[in-house]
Design a protein that fits this description.
11-stranded mixed β-sheet, about 375 residues, about 35% helix, alpha/beta
Length: about 375
């Protein structure tokens, strides 16, 4: 009986193989030689993505990194262009045919660094961008190219003014490797902690964090470890922390937050009770609820976090698992929040600001997104 249940779960998970947290590409090539020189008229943006990764180097050099684990932390910078045809919330990737940078996200160069030179490059880039850095930690079933392009789309659509830093842990990028990915996440937490400390050494004045899906587990463990060393806010540099669709057992998350303590600047949890990916994750975990689709927002808010329930919001994907990035209004709201320079905003100020932002965006909000925001102090619709 147990064997038949496992087979059923695997068949139920198969639709996630191309659509869960990654971009759904069959060939995970990052560097495409066919792209050639790209004119400004073909693109709507150019970004340099700094990357710290626990992945091993790929045998195919165009893939750059694969899903195997490395004991070392590799450090690179990837230059990426955003296509002229880009729509906010979309992640335009080629599936077949001739590569066209005016239609698709395109990586144009990868530069490798040792730790000293990586810190120097970070310092110079952050100095040009007001000392700001945004760290993105991807989720389950995500190949390296998918992670790079999602980070680029986030920075482009949110209009983030600082330095983008991708922390890419060794996800196999296969839907059947949930346990492997979970163990890779465990193995990566020390490296994420080291990456956050590196940013501070490189002169960061503010470090914002966005984590998605299983990447939230890596993030919460790294933050918990910072708290254990009495440096939970990175010497006052920690800015916004957005936990999007957290694939974490609710009881585990409560334990992590109790050890971390109530944040000075409330973490923001974005959940959705129609998240099909987390429903399947819960099934694998013995029907234990995940934070990202938990029904009791008030219970989570008591931990000192702000909960944004996006259950009624539209999604760009059928799994409703990436609304933070693929809903055009939500990703712009996120960007407006990240561009707020204040590091001492109270919970009341946070909900007031979000209300002002939704009003400022205009009528598109009413048709595209409906949010319920819960803090320890009040609920805002």
């Amino acid at each position: 009986m147990a064997g038949r249940v496992l087979v059923w779960i695997l068949f139920a998970l198969m639709p996630l193989a191309l659509t869960a947290c990654g971009g759904g590409q069959k060939a995970h090539i990052l560097l495409n030689e066919a792209a050639g020189p790209i004119a400004d008229s073909q693109v709507s943006g150019r970004h340099s993505i700094f990357v710290a990764t626990t992945r091993a180097a790929a045998a195919n050099k165009a893939e750059v990194f694969d899903g195997d684990r490395s004991p070392d932390l590799s450090l690179v910078k990837v230059d990426v262009t955003v296509p002229r045809a880009h729509r906010i919330g979309a992640l335009e990737r080629p599936r077949r045919g001739k590569y066209d940078p005016s239609r698709y996200f395109t990586a144009t160069a990868v530069t490798a660094y040792d730790e000293k030179n990586f810190e120097q490059a970070l310092r110079a880039d952050m100095a040009r961008h007001g000392g700001r850095a945004l760290v993105f930690i991807h989720g389950f079933n995500t190949r390296f190219d998918d992670a790079v392009y999602r980070m680029t789309q986030l920075v482009q659509d949110a209009q983030y003014p600082g330095t983008p830093v991708l922390f890419s842990w060794a996800s196999a990028g296969r839907v059947t490797d949930y346990v492997y990915d979970n163990n890779s996440a465990h193995a990566a937490r020390d490296r994420l902690e080291a990456t956050l400390r590196m940013l501070v050494r490189a002169g960061a004045k503010r470090v914002d964090i966005i984590a998605h899906s299983m990447g939230n587990w890596v993030t919460m463990e790294a933050l918990r470890q910072l708290a254990i060393t009495d440096d939970r806010d990175l010497d006052g540099r920690l800015g916004d922390v957005l936990l999007a669709s957290p694939d974490i057992d609710v009881d585990v998350f409560k334990s992590q937050m109790r050890r971390y303590g109530k944040p000075n600047r409330p973490f923001v949890i974005m959940l959705s009770r129609d998240d099909r990916a987390l429903q399947l994750s819960s099934l694998i975990a013995g029907n234990r609820p995940r934070v990202g689709d938990y029904a009791n927002a008030g219970e989570l808010a008591q931990l000192g976090v702000t909960v944004v329930d996006a259950s009624a919001a539209e999604s760009g994907g059928g799994l409703n698992h990436s609304k933070f990035a693929d809903n055009p209004v939500i990703v712009q709201l996120l960007g407006a929040r990240l561009r707020d320079d204040a590091l001492d905003a109270s919970q009341v100020q946070l909900t007031d600001n979000i209300g002002q932002l939704t009003t400022g965006i205009g009528n598109a909000v009413t048709s595209a997104v409906s949010l319920i925001i819960t803090t320890p102090l009040r609920v805002v619709t």
